[in-house]
Amino acid sequence: MAIRDLVTGADNPELRKISREVRIINKHVLTLLDDMKETLHAVQGVGLAAPQVGVLRRIAIVEFGDKYYELINPRILKSSGEAIGEEGCLSVPGVRGKVKRPETITVMYVDRAGKRHREEITGILARVFCHEIDHLDGVLFVDKMIEEAE
Ligand code: ZN
Q1: What kind of fold does domain 13-148 have according to CATH?
Q2: Tens-place pLDDT, residues 121-141
Q3: Does residue 103 carry a catalytic annotation?
């Protein structure tokens, strides 16, 4: 495993590209997932998307409490409700602000074993999922920020 360099800057074109679907879960994908986990731990974050380490693939990881998710080709199928909460981003250091997100989402993704999952997720965890999935479409939280935190 290895800690990867983070891509930073809200105006960095590398963070604005659309990531490609993963077709085959090969050893490069597995190494990427392992490296992303190590990188997330090193910076003590809750979520990390592949474009944040310079890989334009639809892959993200989320670690929240005792739950750890590896999301390959995640897709939000349904969303409902609204919640405003504060967010920050490893790729936009020094900025935090309020963002409106759905309260509840139904998400589909594939794990490293190729198994398909469909789950309903709510609250802060739904916020983190939405934030990470946005990265795969070149969207940053600052684009949606209602108000910057003091
Ligand atoms: Zn982020």
Answers
A1: Peptide Deformylase (3.90.45)
A2: 999 999 999 999 999 999 999
A3: no
Q: How much is the mean pLDDT over the chain?
A: 97
- From the candidates 14, 132, 147, 150, give the one annotated as an active-site residue: 132
Do 106 and 120 touch, CB atoms closer than 8 A? yes
Residue with tokens 């590896």: 70
Locate the domains of the chain by residue range: 13-148
CA of 113 to the centre of ligand 1 (A): 25
Q: Tell how far the Cα of 44 is from the centroid of ligand 1, in angstroms.
A: 13
- List, as ranges, residues with CB under 5 A of the ion ligand 1: 89
Length of the chain (residues): 150
Give the pLDDT confidence of 77-89 residue by residue, as tens digits. Answer: 999 999 999 999 9
β 104-110/96-101 pair status: unpaired
If you measure from the C-alpha of residue 132 to the centroid of ligand 1, how many angstroms do you get, rounded to a whole number?
Answer: 6
Distance 91 CA to ligand 1 centre (A): 6
7-21, pLDDT tens digit by residue? 999 999 999 999 999
Which tokens is 97 given?
Answer: 């602000």
